[in-house]
Amino acid sequence: MASRQAIGFIAPSLAGEFMTGVMEGILQSLRKHQYDLIAVQGAPQHLINNQLAKQHIKAWIVIIDPAGLNELATNMPAVVISAPNAGERFPLVMPDNNQSARAMVEHLIEHGHSKIAFVGNFNNSDMRDRYSIYCDVLKEHKITPNPAWVVDVGDYTEGRTEHAFYPLIANGLNFSAVVAANDQQAVGVMMALETKGYRVPHDLAVVGFDDANIAQYTNPPLTTVRQQPQLLGSIAADSAIELIAGKPVSNTPIYVPTIPIWRQSCGCKDVYTGINTSTVAPKQQHWADQLAQRMQQVLYYPVPIDPNLSLNESNQGIRSLIQALQAKVEAQKVEVDYLAAWYAIITVNSKSDTLSVLYQVFAAAANQQLAQTDLPADQINAFLATAHTSLLHTVLELQRNEITGLDRLLAANHELSMLLVSNQKQQTGKLAWMQRLPVSIACLALWDEQKPGFLRLASIYSKDGSSTIKAGSHCRGSEFPPAEFLEQARQLNSSGYVACVPIVTASHDWGILAFGHADVQKTIADINSLYIWASILGSSLEHEALESTLDAEREVLRGAVDREHALSKTILELGCPLIPLLPGVLLIPLIGSINTERAQQITETVLNGINEQQASRVLLDITGVSMVDTHVASSLMQIARAAMLLGAKVALVGVRPDIAQSIVSLGINLNTLITYPNLRTAIQQMAMV
């Protein structure tokens, strides 16, 4: 099946609010141009050897880590995001770190801070840029940066930052403010401060970067920089598509604007978003078009809005709200789904401060327009209350859905984790746990050691059971995901979105988990659990491989034990052979030492031989017995007495002088035994009888 053209996106992690925002921006562009998106977690250098998805990809977009991109994209266009060290060959899209990072530090200085610490991950080029700007601004204000107040976390997360920040607290808070290179690290700093009994901003002011959702809900709310990851992604995707078409693209970096958001964590008493809500229209417009422009400007700020934008060209949610207001002004009855209107707005921007400003703009225009009508005040208030309550309901519903989604993820993670403690084989190949997630199609593919460069499609999952891909079939790494898989993903969503997450453990590269879903936004939210899924799958595969190895070793050991038992039995049988010497006479030559177990065996052999052969005499040849002690002598006497009970006599053959002397010294009475010095003498004497 022919595959539609696709853009490849490579990121060190597909998890996190920023990265998923970049992916959503890429998808927005690809929808317009009918391209698939194949997102791969890793770095370009990881794809050089396995050539993953090479047959599908027409251009690459790489973010943060460009290592290996020159080799991977030898004859292919590529665009990089936040990777200024990728080289001049690749167009570069960057957030405007300079403007907003500078604003953050200067804002703290305006609050009276001169002792300012910095927390970041210096493996990230954006964060190194922010640190450089931090140092520059301090020096411009005659403040010498203190290296002792700089923390390189080496990670992006709250937990790692919290623990990395404790040593600075232990040394005493001899600084008064902290610039964190992202919001997660800022939250980690705030967690450490709260644990040690400090308050923000009273004891320490804290600012972040990114304006992640969590920034609105910290206590106090976090002053930060609002990035535009969607715009980063869409610009990069547009550039990649132009390169595919052979159009020239400037090598001058494209800087995407960022916005300082002042909240209480820096010491500000009020929230200020910096959003300008005044109309940008240079000409006389209908009030509905002007309101649509203002609301559109707030919703998409700082993306410039077309000054000729009309109501009909605005966001669907904004359009519905204004149309409801128009109907009220003109005394017309129009049914408006306020919840759907606000949902269309929130899917673009769910920041609480943006929504607050958006409603204020709408309410101010509504009051102005409705004041010119004959509507009584209570009806105007009721109209605004309906709009405001609908906004609150929509926000709460969104939060409830997020909680429900987290419950689903928890259940899926638990089900997958149970694979690690289950003794059932081949469970990892089953993707039934995907049923708990908003994923419609998935494939677990494992590298086949017998066919280098090929993946074995170990398990296929589709929510409706419609997948035509056969589990157990093979696919070249360069052709993965299979064209049929991409086609099914495309049927679910026009962008053909598929994510590929390598399943790698410390000892082995097992394969890839690929999945797609129609509701891209929900799928992107669930990418935050990909690390967990991938690590659990890897651990489960490691567990299965270890179990298989142990099973094989158990079989080897079991076979060795069986062979040992058989050998022991043979040795015992050879150590106590039963030889019919003459009619009615049995010879049992004994070699080696005689312990309790062997004495029992000799007794059983003698008695069974007497019974089966109807023997009247038994010759026990002890020539080969190395030592006769009390135990051996007693055993021989017991054998003789047992034989006598069956009517046979026992004779000892090969009694050497040293053995005779040993028997005498032990005081053992051998009156009931006949003895012969050797076997020849025994045979001769019995022949004469």
From TrEMBL:
Domain of life the protein comes from: Bacteria
Pfam family of the protein (one): Peripla_BP_3
Residue stretches making up the STAS domain: 583-686
The UniProt record lists the keyword Transcription: yes
CDD domains reported in the protein's UniProt record: PBP1_LacI_sugar_binding-like (cd06267), STAS_RsbR_RsbS_like (cd07041)
Gene3D superfamilies per UniProt: 3.40.50.2300, STAS domain
UniProt KW Transcription keyword: yes
Alphabetical UniProt keywords: DNA-binding, Transcription, Transcription regulation
Name assigned to this protein: HTH-type transcriptional repressor PurR
Source organism of this protein record: Herpetosiphon gulosus
